[in-house]
Automatic annotation (TrEMBL):
Gene3D superfamilies: 1.10.238.160. InterPro entries: AlpA. This is Phage transcriptional regulator.
Amino acid sequence: MTNQVETFLRIGEVKKALGVTSSEAVYSRMREGNPRYDPDMPKSVKVGKRATAWLASEIAAYQQILISRSREAGK
């Protein structure tokens, strides 16, 4: 087993990576029942008492999903 160091992204970095301006645009993608819910959106990780983050590798994979969806929709 290899120990791979993961990079955590905080909400500001996730917003930037996804091209959205509000935190709610990120969190709503994770909430079942919300019209913006996306089951492919990575879940956040609790990194402190009042702090959450996302794994950079999971956000990068999610970006690829969004790109694929966009290109498929354009066909």
